[in-house]
Design a protein that fits this description.
The complex is a heterodimer of chains A (89) and B (227). Helix content of chain A is 43%, strand content 22%. Chain A has helices spanning 31-39, 46-57, 61-77, and strands at 2-3, 8-12, 15-20, 25-29, 81-82. Chain A has a three-stranded antiparallel β-sheet with strand order 2-3-4. Chain A has a two-stranded antiparallel ribbon with strand order 1-5. In chain A, a hairpin with a 2-residue loop joins strand 2 (8-12) and strand 3. Classes of the chains: A alpha+beta (89), B alpha+beta (227). Chains A and B meet through strand 2, strand 3 and strand 4 of A and helix 4 and helix 6 of B.
Chain lengths: 89, 227
């Protein structure tokens, strides 16, 4: 997974606000979502992402995967992150 | 309105000067400010010992009434409807003065015991008046706080801090003439400016009952906060 490069995001305390220029809409990320977004500054596999987050938030991996996948699907549907198929990330 | 510098006016035949002025000082100046990367906030502002205090809120919620009441208590005003905000290099937000008048509906003026006779109307067709103001702060001030006026179902007045995303929302939603931003190609500039200002100024929500207005209580509560 990787961030879409032309998304404009700003930190507000420990939360994040994003601008979708095409739609003229704002998206807000809460503290947890902000952490996921920050980690995705480096493109990585969903597996690695979940492992890292499960460790950080001290939750079981299966639960973490479920919630992260849900969130990632949402980000993908809004065009904020993308699946990269280059085999190295 | 070009490059934040030129405004071209083509008055329609038979248009009144007062009506042209409203749109010049309103929408045209709003666009001018956006082009200069200055945030025009739909807010009134007063001078306090520690800087400018701003009040935002939808039309009809009592922004101007509250401002007039604060002026009666001796505060000087910076703006009654739109307060321009810039960000300094050091990161602080600065509020700029607008015009030395308060525009007040006749019923609000009556509530505050101002006489409207002889005052200039905002527009010929409106029962809204220009109230001249003697205590006017004509210099820019650092922004001390922004209060978002709100009404609620409870019967008392409540104050709560607004943080992070909500803070951004308060400033973004109260941006003056934000409907022009997309056409001006300034959505990104505005977005970054609002986020930076949100990080620089404290925002509080102050809620009052719909009825009664509790104007005196509201003013007293705000003054207590400002000490």
């Amino acid at each position: 997974m990787s961030r879409v490069t032309d998304v404009l995001a700003c930190n507000l305390g420990d939360e994040t606000v994003m601008l979708d220029v095409d739609k003229g809409r704002y998206y807000g990320l809460n503290v947890t979502a902000t952490r996921i977004w920050d980690v995705l500054a480096q493109p990585m596999t969903v597996n690695d992402l979940c492992k890292q987050l499960a460790g950080e938030f001290a939750v079981p991996l299966y639960q973490c995967e479920q919630e992260v996948l849900e969130f990632l699907a949402e980000l993908v549907s809004r065009g904020l992150v993308q699946v990269v198929m280059d085999g190295t990330s | 309105v070009v490059n934040g510098r030129d405004i071209w006016i083509e008055p329609a035949r038979a248009s009144l000067e007062a009506d042209v002025r409203i749109f010049l000082l309103g929408s045209a100046f709003g666009v001018l400010l956006h082009q200069r990367h200055i945030l025009p906030l739909h807010a009134s502002a007063i001078q306090t010992t520690h800087g400018a205090v701003l009040f935002v809120g939808p039309s009809g919620l009592g922004k101007s009434t509250l401002l007039a009441a604060l002026l009666q208590r001796g505060y000087a005003m910076l703006a009654d409807d739109v307060t321009s905000i810039t960000l300094e290099a050091a990161g602080g937000a600065v509020a700029f003065p607008a015009f030395p008048h308060v525009r007040l509906w006749a019923d609000a003026a009556t509530k505050l015991q101002y006489a409207c006779e002889g005052l200039r109307r905002v527009r010929a067709s409106l029962d809204k008046y220009h109230l001249p103001v003697s205590r006017f702060c004509a210099k820019p001030l650092p922004v001390r706080a922004v209060y978002a006026l709100n009404v609620h179902q409870a019967s008392d007045i409540r104050l709560e801090p607004v943080e992070n995303l909500q803070k951004f929302a308060v400033l973004a939603n109260n941006t003056y003439r934000d409907q022009f931003l997309e056409g001006l190609g300034l959505l990104q500039t505005h977005f970054q400016l609002v986020a930076a200002i949100a990080n620089a100024v404290p925002v509080h929500r102050i809620s009052r009952p719909v009825h009664p207005f509790l104007l005196d209580d509201l003013v007293t509560r705000i003054e207590a906060e400002l000490v």
